[in-house]
Amino acid sequence: MDKIDFKKTDKAFYTAKTDRWEPVDVPEWQFLKVEGQGDPQTSPAYSAAVSALYSLSYGLKFRSKSVYGRDYVVGPLEGLWWADDMEAYRSGDRAAWKWRMMIRQPDWITQADLEAVRLAVLGKLKGQAEAGTNAETLQAVALTAYREGSSLQRLYFGPYVDEAPLLIDLHDRFMPEHGYEPTGLHHEIYLNDPRKVAPEKIKTLLRQPVRSSA
After folding, report:
1. Buried b vs exposed e over 55-91: b needs ≥16 C-beta within 10 Å?
2. The whole model's pTM is what?
3. Which residue would you say has higher pLDDT here, 213 or 119?
4. Which CATH number belongs to the domain containing residue 88 in this structure?
């Protein structure tokens, strides 16, 4: 059974240059998603959201193999980020950050598949004394299409907390100088596990949807 890996089949959307922002047109894909607010380093809601996404994503992968005879690599964790007052990003007020965490799903996965897997995961949850997520968060996860379209992206190596100057430069200098304006939420794709690599080797794809300001 062949195994699909999005990072290989759609390589242009999972890698980029490290020294400059590059334009890309991102097509529509479907994702599992769940939203919340709070510091991703300390918020229990964030931890529960990520755990729920992975539990359902791996459940869908196993269901795909048994029901459809199709296997794939579970996609990387992704996040859309914003705040009611965007100064929260400049000031580092992480408690005010809002997020939509996502994991991409193959186009043949259906709502019925999600409901079947969700029911199974909820059943297992009842027997776990220390589960990483909870029923409310699992019920909040949705399967949805998302098309980012015209965007700028750049590959970043380093701790998440050190991204801010790069993003401020993008919005305050690069986009005005090159005739762009933002049209959507700041997007991050986490390409490796920060628990398993040195801080300077954490690999994140940064993306910003844009349009011409002309």
Report:
1. bbbebbbebbeeeeeeebebbbbbbbbebeeeebbee
2. 0.94
3. 119
4. 3.20.80.10
